[in-house]
């Protein structure tokens, strides 16, 4: 979302998935709605969650769940997915994960949350594309403009944090080099606190905000 477009004074990047997408009965983003395993934001893209779930090797599937979902049960889930093929719907996949992890009725986080997150990230190449988005956003901001980014899990936030750190540094040389040789020119500067998290009151009003982290940087 760009505010004050003519001046490029504020650019807000909200990395969250919208309720419209989650509630779609065609996209397959949600384990609460039975739908085909698609998970593409752009239907012109070729890769789908169905292809990953039904065709990827154990090694590749395990790596996706472990890396993109930070799922502690990635190995067992990957094994059960392969043994349960073919899997065609979100309900089928969700039930397989519940069988591995249990219902977790006392917890607010659904057992399938991390697996669905991992598949969505892999399908849409979200982490690979994020640095390009951040760089393009920085480029179009005017001097003094603010780049505001809201991320919702540690993988995204790590990339945002690294990007801002890189773009606010005057030197990006290896620390072992005694004299700066890179001639790097920072494009951003930090503004106050490094990051902001939602208050308890905000989380009570909007539980989806519980994992949100907001970071702000100013264009030089």
UniProtKB/TrEMBL annotation:
GO function term, MF aspect, one: rRNA (cytosine-N4-)-methyltransferase activity
Keywords, in A-Z order: Methyltransferase, S-adenosyl-L-methionine, Transferase
SUPFAM superfamilies: Putative methyltransferase TM0872, insert domain, S-adenosyl-L-methionine-dependent methyltransferases
Signal peptide: none
UniProt KW Methyltransferase keyword: yes
UniProt cross-references to PANTHER family, sorted A to Z: 12S RRNA N4-METHYLCYTIDINE METHYLTRANSFERASE (PTHR11265:SF0), S-ADENOSYL-METHYLTRANSFERASE MRAW (PTHR11265)
Name of the protein in its database record: 16S rRNA (Cytosine(1402)-N(4))-methyltransferase
Species of provenance: marine metagenome
């Amino acid at each position: 979302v760009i505010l004050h477009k003519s001046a490029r004074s504020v650019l807000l990047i909200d990395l969250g998935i919208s309720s419209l997408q989650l509630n779609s009965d065609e996209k397959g983003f949600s384990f609460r709605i039975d739908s085909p395993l698609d998970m593409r934001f752009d239907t012109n893209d070729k890769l789908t969650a169905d292809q990953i779930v039904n065709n990827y090797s154990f090694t590749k599937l395990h790596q996706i769940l472990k890396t993109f979902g930070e799922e502690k049960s990635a190995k067992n889930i990957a094994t059960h997915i392969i043994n349960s093929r073919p899997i065609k719907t979100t309900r089928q996949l969700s039930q397989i994960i519940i069988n591995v992890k249990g219902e977790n009725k006392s917890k607010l986080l659904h057992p399938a949350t991390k697996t669905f997150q991992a598949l969505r990230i892999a399908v849409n190449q979200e982490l690979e594309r994020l640095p390009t988005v951040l760089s393009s956003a920085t480029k179009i901001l005017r001097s003094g403009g603010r780049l505001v980014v809201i991320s919702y899990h540690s993988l995204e936030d790590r990339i945002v944090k690294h990007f801002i750190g890189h773009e606010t540094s005057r030197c990006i040389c290896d620390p072992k080099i005694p004299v700066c040789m890179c001639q790097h020119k920072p494009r951003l500067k930090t503004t106050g606190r490094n990051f902001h998290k939602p208050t308890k009151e905000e989380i009570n009003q909007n539980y989806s905000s519980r994992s949100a982290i907001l970071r702000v940087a100013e264009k030089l």
